[in-house]
Design goal:
By secondary structure, the chain is mainly β. The chain has four domains: about 100 residues, Immunoglobulin-like (Sandwich), CATH 2.60.40; about 50 residues, no CATH class; about 100 residues, Immunoglobulins (Immunoglobulin-like, Sandwich); about 90 residues, Immunoglobulins (Immunoglobulin-like), CATH 2.60.40. Helices cover about 10% and strands about 50% of the residues. It is built from three helices and 27 strands. The strands form eight sheets. The protein has a five-stranded mixed beta sheet with strand order 2-8-7-4-5. Strands 14-20-19-16-17 form a five-stranded mixed beta sheet, with no helix packed on it. A hairpin with a 2-residue loop joins strand 21 and strand 22. The longest helix is centred in the first third of the chain and has 19 residues. It is rod-shaped and about 170 Å long. The N and C termini lie far apart (about 170 Å).
Length: about 375
Amino acid sequence: MDLRPFLFIAIVFALIAFVALTLPKTSTELVSATNVFLEATTQSETITENQSIEISAFARGAKTITFFYNGKNESFECTQNECTKNFSVEFEEKGIYFVEVFAVNGTQSVKKRVTIRVVEGSRTCIDSTLFGACSSQLPFFCDNGALVQKCSECGCREGFLCLNDSCVHKPVALEVVGLKEGKVFSLPLQKVSFTIVFEAAKEPVLSGAGFRVVGRLLSLSESIEVQKDFVSKNLNVLDTQEVQLEFSGVESTGEYSLEVELLGEFPFKKSFEGALIVVEADEESPMAPVWSNYFAEGAGIKLNWLANSEEDVKEYRVFESTEENPAFIAYSFRESVPASENFIVIDSGFTGKQFFLLKAVDWLSNESGYSEVLEVES
């Protein structure tokens, strides 16, 4: 019997076994041979652009865990037989990306590859609101990554009103009850201001309620309008709050009345009758005032004069001296008296004679001449 065929087969099997023993071991074999175990996981395999993701690696029997991405690597030392390490990376553009994780023990290593799919997506603010959209938390708007108040675009929650792109408490009923100033005289193009007084009409007003005041100066020849937004303070019924309106550029001479409109949940309009402002190019001085009499009043002496007939007189100025001087050089200013009054009470704690002069001054600072000298003796 010829044994050569059997001998040939035996030689072939021996060669195959030798080659198998000399080939490098695979990763799987390394795990078995060195007892190194590696598992790499991620929160999601698909994310959107400009989003970061965290990759977690768990290893057993490894000395280090290393993450490789985009030509860079980051290594962590394992001080115990089992260890977990995390790696965070952000992807700016859509595509398919690979992060490789190695668990190494001496010369042996195990590799895992994590595949991340980045898809096109919309960018968002911190509360997940899309760029250019309104947040669920009104009145916030996602403006290129920043949440800003924009109630003109997004609106307000129930019970609030949009004012200057911020939400304020919705107003309740207010009424215009008066003006702080009375009749005013002005030169053309001079600023004129009025203080409007409001009060709660039906119920208390919460601090932060928003309103708009529209004021109109009205005459036969022209109308000037001013708008002003304001936020109320806490108001109980009959409490008052003041808001000032300032008009500029009143050009035409004449008499003007004021109309005030209060805009809110309960709109209210009020016209103030009469000429509240008289605009005139006045260079004419008032007439010099005329003394009428004086007499003792209590511990003082009351000096009286006749009221001037001019409507634009603002005040009277009183001057005094202890000696009569027709040139008025020795007289000093004592005090001003509003045009609504035509008297002054002085202290009578002096002996001998005292002398007084008067001047009238109008709203446009035109001054009259001096009155006659009033001689008072005590």
